[in-house]
Amino acid sequence: MGESFLEQLRIDSRFLKSDRRLDTELVDKLILQLNRIYPQILTDKEATKFRDLDVPTCIRLAELLSHLQEKGEEACREFYCALHLHVEDVYFSLPTRLRLRESGDPVDPVTSPTTRYALNDRSPLFYLSCFSVAVGVALLYYYGESREVSGSSSALGLAALGLGRKVREVLIWYTERKMDGK
Prior knowledge:
Distance between the termini: 75 Å
Shape: elongated
Structural class: mainly alpha
Number of helices: 11
Order of helices and strands: HHHHHHHHHHH
Radius of gyration: 30 Å
C-alpha cells in the first residue's frame, strides 16, 4: 500500500467525522493521550481548545484532524496509535485498515502483534535447560559449603539423575572428588 499516515488520515477523516462511535468522552481521551504523551504534537493550549464542551464534538474532531494533518506525519502516526489504544473497533473499521486487510498487505509495525509482543526467539526448552544449570550450580554451592553434613554426596548423586549428560558428569565428578577428600 505504501501510504503515509498523513495520507491515510486524509482518507479516513471523512469516516471519522461521520462515525457516531466517537462520542465526546472518546474524543477527549484521544486529545488527552496526544497532549500528555506527546506535548510536542498537542500543547496544553491546543488541548484545551479541542476539549471545549461548548463546541459540538463533530466540529472539535474535524478541527483536531485538520490540526494533526498540519502538524505532519508523526502527529498522524500518534493519532492512529491513540485511536488503536482507546477505540479499537473504530480503528479496525477505518477505510484504510479495511483496504489493508483485504489486500493482504502486512499491517503497519504500530499494530502488528508479532512485532509488538515478540520478546525473543528462544524455545521453552532453552529456559528449562538454563534453569537446570542454575539449580545444579546452586546445589553444588550449597552442599559444597557444608562438609560436616553427611550424605551430601548422595544428595548430589540424586540431583544428577534429573539433569543433562554434561551437568550429570560434573556433579558425579564433584561427588567423587569430595568422597576422595574426606
